[in-house]
Prior knowledge:
Exo-alpha-sialidase, 626 residues
Amino acid sequence: xxxxxxxxxxxxxxxxxxxxxxxxxxxxxxxxxxxxxxxxxxxxxxxxxxxxxxxxxxxxxxxxxxxxxxxxxxxxxxxxxxxxxxxxxxxxxxxxxxxxxxxxxxxxxxxxxxxxxxxxxxxxxxxxxxxxxxxxxxxxxxxxxxxxxxxxxxxxxxxxxxxxxxxxxxxxxxxxxxxxxxxxxxxxxxxxxxxxxxxxxxxxxxxxxxxxxxxxxxxxxxxxxxxxxxxxxxxxxxxxxxxxxxxxxxxxxxxxxxxxxxxxxxxxxxxxxxxxxxxxxxxxxxxxxxxxxxxxxxxxxxxxxxxxxxxxxxxxxxxxxxxxxxxxxxxxxxxxxxxxxxxxxxxxxxxxxxxxxxxxxxxxxxxxxxxxxxxxxxxxxxxxxxxxxxxxxxxxxxxxxxxxxxxxxxxxxxxxxxxxxxxxxxxxxxxxxxxxxxxxxxxxxxxxxxxxxxxxxxxxxxxxxxxxxxxxxxxxxxxxxxxxxxxxxxxxxxxxxxxxxxxxxxxxxxxxxxxxxxxxxxxxxxxxxxxxxxxxxxxxxxxxxxxxxxxxxxxxxxxxxxxxxxxxxxxxxxxxxxxxxxxxxxxxxxxxxxxxxxxxxxxxxxxxxxxxxxxxxxxxxxxxxx
Length: 626
């Protein structure tokens, strides 16, 4: 069961949908149960006597007589709420049922589960004792039960010290379980055989309502033997545990790394660079920053580079440990530079910067690492290395001549780096540097954000990498309503930027994503934007590179689950032509994408990933530059 929206927007036109099956193979659909009053269903339980109980939402027209200025008139309004419905015939017909308030309960029902002797729901409850200044309020959960789904009564109560609410309710024929939040969001599992008496089943530690710090619980069930099973995520890691037998002990977490096929290794290549006779690729594996290197004369002979101090202290990528990922790499006069980010379990981000003289052995490089500084792109040019990103929500840049000390960039004019802006990438030209990103669109009066929120491409230029000037905002291509740049490459003073954007749809329909390019032939001062020929259905443009013949751009075409790698070429950055990208790892079942490009002699080297139900397989493709 669920909901259906004819317009696809789920904005006022949704109706509940029920599917039924006798064997789990052939399904019959029934729209608009209860004459369309139910707008959506999210939970269902069987009573054991052939009846079903479902939880969902309703919207019904209610007519009331109101008096205004001495006159009485009828007024119709839409009443919305949540409720329970009963089906005695396997889901064909539905009637509403009411769960009474009792034992201090209030508010909507929580959970819906089949258990011993019937079905169960929970509600929050409170008890007030004392009088006046000595009055105290204690909270608890009230469990209601029904043998037939029609008649409900309170069965028992659940509570823990510093009770904070019922998070989950689950059951089976062998018993019931609830997850209750206590002090500081700590989760405690309580178990019962009848809904009346409850015993502790172990603690799961701090829980969270959203991914980040603590455990985000996605499911609770009761297995054979009345063992409670908890599923969810702790940060970025999957979580599976069984309830313990004593309240003083935590639940027993399952080591999913020891379950064949449960954990697939993370591996991502985000950027490649060429210099000093080597090709270097950067990204991450297993949640830690990673670098690979190969001789330019033999770019198939890859070896994992040495990164001895990237995982100093606690191992990156482990449970409740920070995640590292490099996002860009460049070679310059003082060797190699790679930049990325470290994401802490609480979601806070700090820079990840490393350097190498030979591209093989890498060390963390000193960098202003205050929280709030995020680095995304890097380049090497006439005045040294430049790194760009954001700081405290504004576009930011840093320059270094030796990879040891960094100087923060500043405005060349008034407010060039201010406002809701960000830099995503930077390239070097014959006269300096050009950075691209975006800015939030604002109105002229007080520079308030435009509603609904929209974005515009943004470009900055600098001669020395320190003083930055914003150029006139490049126009978005026809048909693109909101968007920004995310990558830039330079061939002399000709620059090509890659962008993402959204195209408006008919009223009530979600926006459509579009990829676009921008080109500047005067070192970044003026720009033209367009959607490359044949890229109308491209979900994104992923990477770009300069070749001896011009420019090459990689992207994807098709929808999720059926994406293929795609490639475009241009001699001047303005006129683009689609070039073939076919073969294993480039098209076929699943999703294929190229994530980084590099020019090696007269060839283009591409890395990417081929993803299907079996996991992800790396792709390495070498082709003559088109």
